[in-house]
């Protein structure tokens, strides 16, 4: 089946600050919303002119009816411009793009988010909840990792999706004191995850994802990981988002951003 990608001017419903420099952008994008799956992303032109020239990629954070939601951090010129956009304005958007997560109806699903890696996992949790409604034995566990408690986001959204949420902070200010990968190891000491049907989904910095790959391999589990990469074009044309895998270089925007953990080097 040919993949459908849409480019259109989309109206901003709201663009609200939820942290010091974190924002939630809601867009009325009926056609993109109807085609999106967790793990996919959109490319947004944040200004009408040529400064900045390149689009910015954003994971699809949540879909509700005709609306899509983006959770982003204003850390550069492009996202700073985006943070000033108001309800009623329009943005030129392309999407949905990329290869998303494969939703597996396993007994246990463990979602691991490092920092802004939380962005695509809320949509995933909501889709997994639909599987859970068909199988009461299914359980979704979410591990949220961040530097401090002030950098933990989306707890309410995950809990609303019926997830068991566990937190880790590097400074020990909330939850487990240490890295989220150490929390994952601790959780996996509970042998039910190793014996029963378990799938791990993760998004975060590359070192975190690489470590998760090693953890799941040693446990005999499977994981899907979403790479965080700057993707200028979103369709594999600019060749700027190449990532090395065991089968050669892949383009994160076209071949990913979701890969099987064992594919990564």
From TrEMBL:
<dbReference type="InterPro" id="IPR039261">
    <property type="entry name" value="FNR_nucleotide-bd"/>
</dbReference>
<dbReference type="InterPro" id="IPR050353">
    <property type="entry name" value="PyrK_electron_transfer"/>
</dbReference>
<feature type="binding site">
    <location>
        <position position="241"/>
    </location>
    <ligand>
        <name>[2Fe-2S] cluster</name>
    </ligand>
</feature>
<feature type="binding site">
    <location>
        <position position="238"/>
    </location>
    <ligand>
        <name>[2Fe-2S] cluster</name>
    </ligand>
</feature>
<keyword id="KW-0408">Iron</keyword>
<dbReference type="InterPro" id="IPR037117">
    <property type="entry name" value="Dihydroorotate_DH_ele_sf"/>
</dbReference>
<dbReference type="InterPro" id="IPR017927">
    <property type="entry name" value="FAD-bd_FR_type"/>
</dbReference>
<dbReference type="GO" id="GO:0016491">
    <property type="term" value="F:oxidoreductase activity"/>
</dbReference>
<keyword id="KW-0285">Flavoprotein</keyword>
<feature type="binding site">
    <location>
        <position position="233"/>
    </location>
    <ligand>
        <name>[2Fe-2S] cluster</name>
    </ligand>
</feature>
<dbReference type="InterPro" id="IPR012165">
    <property type="entry name" value="Cyt_c3_hydrogenase_gsu"/>
</dbReference>
<dbReference type="GO" id="GO:0044205">
    <property type="term" value="P:'de novo' UMP biosynthetic process"/>
</dbReference>
<comment type="subunit">
    <text>Heterotetramer of 2 PyrK and 2 PyrD type B subunits.</text>
</comment>
<dbReference type="GO" id="GO:0009055">
    <property type="term" value="F:electron transfer activity"/>
</dbReference>
<comment type="similarity">
    <text>Belongs to the PyrK family.</text>
</comment>
<dbReference type="InterPro" id="IPR017938">
    <property type="entry name" value="Riboflavin_synthase-like_b-brl"/>
</dbReference>
<protein>
    <recommendedName>
        <fullName>Dihydroorotate dehydrogenase B (NAD(+)), electron transfer subunit</fullName>
    </recommendedName>
</protein>
<dbReference type="Pfam" id="PF00175">
    <property type="entry name" value="NAD_binding_1"/>
</dbReference>
<keyword id="KW-0665">Pyrimidine biosynthesis</keyword>
<keyword id="KW-0274">FAD</keyword>
<keyword id="KW-0813">Transport</keyword>
<feature type="binding site">
    <location>
        <position position="253"/>
    </location>
    <ligand>
        <name>[2Fe-2S] cluster</name>
    </ligand>
</feature>
<dbReference type="GO" id="GO:0051537">
    <property type="term" value="F:2 iron, 2 sulfur cluster binding"/>
</dbReference>
<dbReference type="GO" id="GO:0046872">
    <property type="term" value="F:metal ion binding"/>
</dbReference>
<feature type="binding site">
    <location>
        <begin position="56"/>
        <end position="59"/>
    </location>
    <ligand>
        <name>FAD</name>
    </ligand>
</feature>
<dbReference type="InterPro" id="IPR023455">
    <property type="entry name" value="Dihydroorotate_DHASE_ETsu"/>
</dbReference>
<feature type="domain" description="FAD-binding FR-type">
    <location>
        <begin position="5"/>
        <end position="103"/>
    </location>
</feature>
<keyword id="KW-0411">Iron-sulfur</keyword>
<dbReference type="InterPro" id="IPR001433">
    <property type="entry name" value="OxRdtase_FAD/NAD-bd"/>
</dbReference>
<keyword id="KW-0001">2Fe-2S</keyword>
<comment type="function">
    <text>Responsible for channeling the electrons from the oxidation of dihydroorotate from the FMN redox center in the PyrD type B subunit to the ultimate electron acceptor NAD(+).</text>
</comment>
<dbReference type="InterPro" id="IPR019480">
    <property type="entry name" value="Dihydroorotate_DH_Fe-S-bd"/>
</dbReference>
<feature type="binding site">
    <location>
        <begin position="78"/>
        <end position="79"/>
    </location>
    <ligand>
        <name>FAD</name>
    </ligand>
</feature>
<keyword id="KW-0479">Metal-binding</keyword>
<dbReference type="GO" id="GO:0050660">
    <property type="term" value="F:flavin adenine dinucleotide binding"/>
</dbReference>
<dbReference type="Pfam" id="PF10418">
    <property type="entry name" value="DHODB_Fe-S_bind"/>
</dbReference>
<comment type="pathway">
    <text>Pyrimidine metabolism; UMP biosynthesis via de novo pathway; orotate from (S)-dihydroorotate (NAD(+) route): step 1/1.</text>
</comment>
<keyword id="KW-0249">Electron transport</keyword>
